[in-house]
Amino acid sequence: MSPNGPAGPASPAPVRLLIVDDEARHMEALRDTLSGHGYEVAGHASAASALSELRRRPFDVLLTDLVMPGMTGIELLRAALQIDPQLVGIVMTGEGSIATAVEAMRSGATDYVLKPFRLASILPVLGRAVEIGRLRRENTVLQASLRQRADELEASNRELDAFTRSVSHDLRTPLNGLLGFSVLLQQTVQTLSPRERSWLEGIQQAAEHMTHLIEALMRLSQMGRRALALAPVDVAALVGEVVDEQRRVAGAAAVRFVVGEMPPVVADGPMLRQVFANLIGNAVKYASRSEPPREATIRIGGERDGAEAVFFVSDDGPGFDPADAERLFDAFIRLKGADGVEGHGVGLSIVQRIVQRHGGRVWAVSAPGQGATFRFALPAQPQG
Fold it and tell me: Is 284 within the bounds of a domain?
């Protein structure tokens, strides 16, 4: 503790001001005046000596005369910015021409003042310059932080990619052996009881399930790495193809599709097709589980809503608890009531990842026994 009491907060460092004017008396007068207003001021009567001092120590603001022998103020400013890009420059000129001011601003000056000037006119200009300098420094720090964060994310993605491939390879090898040996055992051992054969079938089903989970994990990983190939997409035609595929799959014969308007968008066509395939496929699987069995109805449509195109896929299946709406899009999550429905819990995660990569959003609404509606919105101006 200080002998005079507790220490207070540190005072901010004074703003360092470099004044350059070949009129020495004018420079000295300005230096002495501004020193009394909280600035740490250094003055020079030549551009060469000013640049030498700038190389020795940093300054916040450069206040330079425009017309000087040997090197103009604009030339000095350009040279000074080569030494310190964060330096804020102000040009003093007695000419007062717009052309001169424009040239100064193009050379990196943030402002200019006309000679002769009063203290009341130069202090606000210096205040703005100090604020600009502060913002530049903060922006530099922010940009450096963003670059570091981007590098860290890129490294993390590379590590995750390598880990995913390693896991896929390392898990597939023993699983293939497990499947192969269990099939071989089932085919060659004739003395197995029905109970023992059911055990072997359980081993095979578990191994096949794990294989499918690994494949799903790889698909989910690949969706985050593949670059978007944006182009105009005829969504109506795309949805028509997906619906035709669903009509051909087993269990879709008792499903009626009602397709409404589908506004075209600019998107990655194959990825958008995957979104509709996953949503429509899910709707078919759950809508077909109605009790008592009946023809299920899947409704698909879209509309322009301001700056977005909003699409929906709706079914009349068993629905889900609204409290679970957010968890639906978590990878490998299967909600209560999903038993007996084919899938591995990654389809909706892939949908969310694709939509978000396009700068969009996806959500679901439902209630038990009242079906489910999945909606996603894509921006009119695509991102990525």
Answer: yes
Number of domains in the chain: 3
pLDDT tens digits, one per residue of 16-29:
999 999 888 888 88
| CA–CA distance, 129 with 141 (Å, rounded to integer) | 18
- CA dihedral in degrees (64, 65, 70, 71; nearest 10)? 50
- CATH code: domain of residue 345: 3.30.565.10
User: Considering the entire predicted model, what is its pTM?
Assistant: 0.53
Question: Whole domain around residue 211: which residue ranges?
Answer: 157-225
CA angle 94, 95, 96 (to 5 degrees): 95
Kindly report, residue by residue over 118-138, the tens digit of the pLDDT: 788 888 888 888 888 888 888
